[in-house]
Design brief:
heterotrimer; A alpha+beta (83); B mainly alpha (457); C alpha/beta (234); A: 83 residues; alpha+beta; SH3 type barrels; seven-stranded antiparallel beta sheet; 7 strands; C: 234 residues; alpha/beta; Rossmann fold; 9 helices; 47% helix; globular; binds guanosine-5'-diphosphate; binds magnesium ion; FeoB_GTPase (chain B); membrane (chain B); ferrous iron transmembrane transporter activity (chain B); Ferrous iron transporter B (chain B); Fe2_transport_prot_B_C (chain B)
């Protein structure tokens, strides 16, 4: 079964898989995120927090990218749970 | 119809959604291509990077490991450079005797021997023996760390602190470059895309001591701070002092970044993305050879190019007299009262001023200045070196303040040129000169006055 | 020189472009495992068979949409300086993101070779890449190499050789977008072609104009003015 609910990337726990549905950022940051593979429909894995809790590293399009809280809060998606 | 009209026409029919659609389509094409062109045999994933990251970016171990790495790299550099440095110095000293004999044999005039041997030869060989060994150790060690993939982890760990002062986590990468050369590091600040944070990185890069300043820092730390220790322990204490100085530079970086982002460079921290590549074992031999030979060589050639004329100039200044004192002494006398206020003296101030083209030549110029007035004519060992300083009234506070001045003072000429190239602004280039200069005066001043107040000196 | 060709290295940051550049030219560009260390365009030469190649190490970029100075530098070089071959260096272990950039290059220029690097790392991770399928799908030669271990260089150099001597021809695949976007492209593409002729891909330019790439527009005008000056002075 696949059950899902909406959370932001920032809220994700280590190991969570999140399927991106919306990015509420504009301008250069939005374009940069798109370039890196944070596109709607992409599946992102939450990898780990940095020692001071922020930024958080994510696995996206086969690479690891760290984002600050300010940005990861604004990327939303469905939690994909494999159970 | 021209391009501009076409552009307006395109804009009229376009939609803001367009970029999103384009990139999304490109990515779904990529995924399709991967689906047909790539297959996976092993089921178990490669977890080496994850395991290493669990340590290197761990809540508990992340920061201690960073500090240890810094210490280990410096320790290797200092301990390893010790013996080759004194061997080179001895060799050049030995060679000098023969060159001098040759000059005497040819009945060369004294002034020629003065310029070429006491000025040019001594100045540049000094730079070589003090700088080459540490560089030949530091560059490859650092290159191995860099090629392995540790640097982005530092930027990952430190970002929270940089964000706090309004700067960018990638500034730690440009700072790491600064250990090699500030001028190159200023160029590398391009990795920070937002202009405000890039400017912060450029303006504060100088607070990381480049290899041209280590010579000064290492020599003074081992002469004055680690003097009562011997052997390996001495290198350890020297390393401790250097790490302390570097940490102080980092604190100053944070402070200046914070102050600037509250005043001249106001604004909220802008976007931040950082890629953490998988760890990759570098090709040991290639990396070591490339960085130690090539890089040390280029840096050295540059240093000698600057050191040679500066050394000649200093010798000339020290030997041309106006009235009954030399030009050098006139300048020293003029700068002395100011220097004394900071716990330094006129020779030191002059050496830093003449050292603007390159930090490597500050200490050689200083020594030539001291020697031009003293009775000593030859520096055979570090003990002699210390005696020269002591003869000119140095205490540990003088040494500390020279180190602080060296750490904080204005960037070298090449760096300033690069700052101008990167910022294209006279105002910011001037600030890049002014801010460190003010700090380099203020901090030693406070240290000296405090030391005097408590009767330490 | 008749037998001299320019080869530009493009690709994401950290895919081994400088390592490849050093291995081919014998020079010593700065390498390191972090994104963004190559800041200036380095040039070097390599001889193969009867030809001399001038290799240009472009800064690594995540895309070529002129979001940053680096991207503009790389983009301008590929589009306006027109190297004889653009070598797109990809990281075999993260092809999904890397191919996205390759697709962008395929839209910009014709003579492209896709060079999949770090093949040793991919093998270790059990990633098998079928370069024949990719060659067919992309319409340009795909070569697998390991720049660090100097694996696959003869094949790469031969492919370059055959491409510049016209033995093989590229037919870069063009990404198809939604119907809506395709319609808009069609609307202005012909006008663009009548303005720039075949010197620049009109489809690509149409997309960039639709995307509102002002930096590109400025670059275009700047170069027009320069050309006029040169012509007037001549
Ligand atoms: N294992 C492996 N590592 C490589 C290979 N090519 C490059 N690297 C490493 O990948 C990292 C990035 O290389 P670099 O040439 O600086 O990348 P650039 O940013 O594209 O110029 C360095 O640490 C190289 O040692 C390869 O073929 N195999
Ligand atoms: Mg590079």
């Amino acid at each position: 079964m696949v059950k899902s609910n909406k959370i932001s990337l920032f809220q994700g726990k280590k190991g969570n898989l999140i399927k991106i549905s919306s990015i509420s950022l504009e301008g250069v940051m939005r374009r940069r995120l798109l370039d890196l593979g944070f596109v709607p429909g992409a599946i992102v894995e939450v990898i780990k927090k940095s020692p001071l809790g922020d930024p958080i590293a994510f696995r996206v399009s086969q690479t690891t990218i760290a984002l600050r809280k300010e940005e990861s809060m604004k990327i939303e998606g469905e939690l994909v749970n494999h159970d | 119809m021209n391009m501009k009209e076409l552009y307006s026409e395109a804009q009229a029919i376009s939609s803001p959604q367009l970029r999103d659609d384009i990139v999304q389509q490109l990515y779904s094409r990529s995924r399709e291509l991967c689906d047909v062109g790539v297959s996976y045999t092993k089921t178990k994933a490669d977890t080496r990077t994850e395991k290493l990251d669990a340590i290197f970016t761990s809540k508990i171990w992340g920061f201690p490991i960073m500090l240890t790495m810094l210490g280990v790299v410096f320790y290797l550099t200092i301990a390893g450079a010790n013996i080759p440095s004194s061997m080179l110095a001895e060799f050049f000293g030995w060679l000098e005797n023969y060159i001098t004999s040759a000059f005497q044999f040819l009945h060369a005039p004294d002034w020629l021997h003065g310029i070429l041997v006491l000025g040019l030869y001594r100045g540049s060989t000094w730079v070589i023996s003090v700088m080459l060994p540490p560089m030949a150790i530091f560059f490859p060690t650092f290159a191995l760390l860099e090629n392995y993939g540790y640097l982005p982890r530092v930027a990952f760990n430190m970002d929270r602190l940089f964000k706090f002062v309004g700067a960018h986590g990638k500034q730690s990468l440009t700072m790491a470059m600064g250990f090699g050369c500030n001028a190159a590091a200023v160029m590398s600040s391009r990795i920070i895309e937002s202009p405000r944070e890039r400017m912060l990185a450029i303006l504060t890069n100088n607070f990381v001591p480049c290899n041209g300043r280590w010579g000064t820092l290492i020599v003074l730390a081992s002469l004055f701070m680690a003097a009562s220790f011997t052997g390996g322990f001495k290198s350890l204490v020297t390393t401790g002092v250097i790490v302390g100085i570097v940490l102080f530079g980092i604190v100053v970086t944070f402070f200046v970044s914070w102050a600037l982002s509250k005043t001249l460079l106001k604004g909220v921290p802008t976007h931040y993305t950082l890629e953490l590549p998988p760890y990759r074992r570098p090709k040991f031999f290639d990396t070591v050879i490339r960085s130690s030979l090539t890089k040390s060589w280029t840096v050295l050639v540059r240093a000698v190019k600057v050191a040679a004329p500066a050394a000649i100039l200093t010798w000339v200044f020290a030997n041309i007299h106006i009235g009954d004192t030399s030009i050098l002494l006139h300048a020293v006398g003029f700068l002395d009262p100011f220097g004394k206020m900071l716990g330094l003296d006129g020779y030191i101030m002059l050496a830093f001023i003449l050292g603007l083209p390159a930090n490597e030549i500050v200490l050689p110029i200083l020594l030539m200045g001291y020697l031009s007035t003293g009775s000593l004519t030859e520096v055979d060992s570090l003990v002699d070196l210390k005696q020269i300083f002591l003869d000119h009234g140095w205490t540990w506070v003088t040494a500390l303040n020279v180190m602080l001045f060296s750490l904080l003072h204005y960037p070298c000429g090449t760096t300033l040129v690069n700052i101008y190239k990167e910022t294209k602004s006279k105002k910011w280039t001037f600030l890049a000169f002014l801010i460190p200069t003010v700090l380099a005066i203020l901090v030693p001043f406070i240290v000296y006055q405090t030391a005097k107040l408590f009767g330490w000196v | 020189m008749i037998n001299s060709y320019r080869i530009a290295l493009a690709g994401n940051p950290n895919t081994g472009k400088s390592t490849l550049f050093n291995a081919l030219t014998g020079l010593r560009q700065h390498t390191g495992n972090w994104a963004g260390k190559t800041v200036s365009l380095a040039e070097g030469t390599v001889k193969h068979k009867d030809k001399t190649y001038q290799i240009i190490d472009l800064p690594g970029t995540y895309s070529l949409f002129s979001n940053s100075v680096d991207e503009e530098v790389a983009r301008n070089y590929i589009v306006f300086e027109k190297p004889d071959v653009t070598l797109v260096v990809l990281d075999a272990t993260s092809l999904e993101r890397n191919l996205n950039l390759a697709l962008q290059v395929l839209e910009m220029t014709r003579n492209v070779i896709v060079c999949i690097n770090l093949i040793d790392e991919a093998e270790k991770k059990g990633i098998n890449i079928n370069e024949r399928i990719l060659t067919r799908k992309l319409g340009v030669p795909v070569v697998k190499i390991s720049a660090r271990n100097k694996i696959g260089f003869p094949m790469l150099l031969d492919t370059i050789d055959r491409l510049v001597s016209g033995t093989i021809e590229c037919n870069p695949v063009q990404t198809t977008y939604s119907e809506e976007i395709e319609e808009k492209i069609t609307t202005i593409e012909s006008k663009i072609r009548s303005l720039v002729g075949n010197s620049i891909s009109s489809r690509w330019l149409a997309l960039r104009l639709l995307d509102g790439d002002e930096a590109l527009l400025n670059e275009f005008n700047r170069r027009l003015v320069l050309n006029d000056q040169v012509r007037r002075e001549a």
